[in-house]
Write a structure and sequence with these properties.
14% of the residues lie in helices and 33% in strands.
Length: 468
């Protein structure tokens, strides 16, 4: 609370001139004992009456009337189009960050005494906490609604409360999305996928279907029906793939939203088949934007088998704390409009577990949809390349360790040992920043590169090549 609020915080001393004090107690002096009279027993006076505490009379504060223009409550309506179920095969790749000290849940100790508090005591504690919460919430709500300006007693300032998420609306969104999310079984693992078209094109991860036996998979829809599907195409560099279900029609295609419009803190839903549990939904937020990870390697891709995939750098990913587990790969990350804004692809692990620890990654929906359209048309997916191998420089930036002969960087005059500090309008603080900056462009784009060499800053323009 600020110093110009009209409500005085509890416990703050009251100024003397605002609090008249009256006392109704008798004198507290001790009366002398009477001397005993001859022939009569001594008379003992009773002890002085206890002195009651002073009565404090606090004049009531003038009522504060909120301004007629106080913030009004608005109702958010979500027009949620039918969304497709997201097919996905296999466990999401496990991205393990550098080890850091941490704590893991401890199992119960056999024979330990029951440490649960007495139910009656717990009930009292909960009741007391509820009273405090109600009082504090009411106070905060009143202060948030109106606040008097100390310099102008008649002026009222209003504040607009942040909109709250109606948790019941998440159930409606999930129900609309479920028909567009499917489970994919490759014979060696399971994953998830998203229905793209009514006639059976389904988007998923490359690591889900890239090693499918006989280039064929089994798709299970939300109503329990199954269909055989053929792998149409895959793109390992973006970890995306498309399959086509046979003999189906009238499927509910997912609607894709603008993933570039997502912000950190936005509520999202993750749909898929973690651990083979079809039709699972979890909720969370967008934790970060534009993440770059190293994905692949010899990792467990499902609870039913293992596969080895090459390591590749994927940038521009959405990070979320919505629970993603093995089998969610290829599933949908959706916004509160019921639109797919990402394809779940990887999770970070603590190194000792392959389960969710609250750090998952999704390929942005804009990129996923673009790649899917190219795969359906049988086109080659183009990937830009700078033609250098880089690591993070000690003082910040990306230091060039190797330059591809006759590549784009070599043609622009970049050399081994140069430290790239800016690419286009993006500051380069580490090697991941450079990967992200390059992958956000297309082959053939011209990219201005700022770098340092021998203590001096220089600039060159590179025409990005196309990865083979």
């Amino acid at each position: 609370m600020t110093e110009n609020e009209s409500n005085r915080p509890e416990g703050e001393p009251t100024p003397p001139d605002a609090v008249p004090v009256t006392s109704s107690s008798p004198s507290a002096e001790t009366l002398p004992l009477a001397q005993p009279t001859a022939g009569l027993p001594p008379v003992v006076l009773p002890p002085p009456a206890p002195v009651p505490p002073p009565t404090v009379v606090v004049p009531p504060a003038p009522p504060v009337s909120p301004s007629p223009s106080a913030a009004s409550t608005s109702t958010h309506e979500f027009a949620v189009p039918p969304a497709g179920q997201i097919p996905g095969g296999g466990q999401p790749p496990m991205w393990t960050p550098p080890p850091t000290p941490g704590m893991a849940p401890m199992p119960g100790i056999p024979g330990a005494p029951d440490a649960r508090p007495h139910r009656f005591g717990t009930g009292l504690a909960i009741a007391a906490a509820g009273v405090v919460l109600a009082v504090v919430s009411g106070l905060i709500g009143a202060v948030a609604a109106t606040q008097l300006d100390e310099g102008s007693p008649t002026e009222t300032r209003t504040f607009t409360a942040a909109p709250t998420v109606d948790r019941s609306s998440l159930a409606d969104i999930a129900a609309r999305l479920q028909p567009s999310v499917v489970s994919i079984n490759t014979g060696t693992g399971e994953g998830s996928g998203v229905v793209l078209t009514a006639d059976g094109y389904i988007l998923t991860n490359n690591h889900v279907v890239g090693t499918a036996r006989g280039n064929s998979v089994t798709v299970t829809f939300s109503d329990g029906k199954k269909a055989k599907a053929t792998v149409v195409g895959t793109d390992p560099k973006t970890d995306l793939g498309v399959v086509k279900a046979d003999g189906v029609s009238g499927l509910t295609a997912a609607k894709f939203g603008d993933s570039d419009a997502m912000r950190v803190g936005d509520t999202v839903l993750a749909l898929g088949s973690p651990l083979g549990l079809d039709g699972s939904v979890t909720a969370g937020i967008v934790s970060a934007m534009d993440r770059t990870i190293q994905e692949g390697g010899d990792q467990s891709d499902s609870p039913f088998g293992r596969s080895s995939t090459p390591v590749t750098s994927i940038s521009g990913l959405l990070q979320t704390d919505a629970a993603i587990n093995p089998g969610n790969s290829g599933g949908a990350l959706a916004n509160l409009n019921g639109e797919v804004v990402g394809i779940n692809t990887a999770i970070a692990t603590s190194g000792s577990s392959n389960g969710n620890i609250g750090v998952g990654f999704a390929i942005p929906g804009n990129r996923a949809k673009q790649v899917a359209d190219q795969l359906i048309k049988g086109q080659k997916v183009s990937h830009p390349v700078l033609g250098v191998a880089v690591t993070t420089a000690d003082g910040g930036g990306a230091v060039i360790g190797n330059v591809t002969q006759n590549g784009p960087a070599a043609a622009a005059g970049l050399q081994q040992g140069d430290v790239i500090t800016k690419a286009g309008d993006k500051a380069i603080n580490d090697s991941d920043d450079l990967v992200s900056a390059v992958q956000s462009h297309k082959a053939g784009d011209r990219l201005d590169i700022t770098y340092t060499r021998d203590g001096s800053t220089r600039t060159t323009t590179v025409t990005l090549g196309e990865a083979s």
